[in-house]
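Order emerges. As here.
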Amino acid sequence: MPLAKIEEVQDVLADFEVRIRGVVERAWADWKEVPGRGRFMFSRTRSNIVFDFICQHAAVEFADDPEIHVIEKGGTLQFLFRDRILVRFKKGNAKGIGSNIETQAVLEFIDPQLMIPGLPEVHKVEACYKTDALGTQLEQLAIVARNRTRRIWSYVIDGTAPAAEVILIPTGPTPDTSPPVVTPKRRGTGAKVAE
């Protein structure tokens, strides 16, 4: 399948972006509640725990939506939106793409030319979250298209609903707020005209 076009992916995912962001934010909140989380020696421990929380929340969030298929495959979950866009959640690395060990299943996902067995031709993208430098705050969530180890494009999901177009409605003339102008009558010259 050709590389995913950003416009097509945005068109499909636009209706789900707030929910996708919500899944990641709830998972991160769960992580922040893990007792002793600062004692873990390896950042991959955090990544694995957060990923598990993401999968739990996403499975519940999308389970009853007829436009989304939850696909369990090889110890992970992927989400097929409107039978066109396949999404997997990942922790983003320094290149802005998902961190992973290259297995056959990973290669099938990250190589846009390879099809995933059992699925129709779909565009494959990652929902990559990024933390701050200390790994204490969720900094960004982006939808990322990649070609193996290269990011092709990405766009940030900020979690707000798409802004509605603002149409200004005229309210009529604006009231005059300047003080009234008083024009004194001219006094006559003193002579009256006879009638």
About this structure: Residues 6-156 form one domain. The chain has a mean pLDDT of 85. Helices lie at 6-13, 17-32, 43-62, 104-110. The first strand starts at residue 68 and ends at 73.
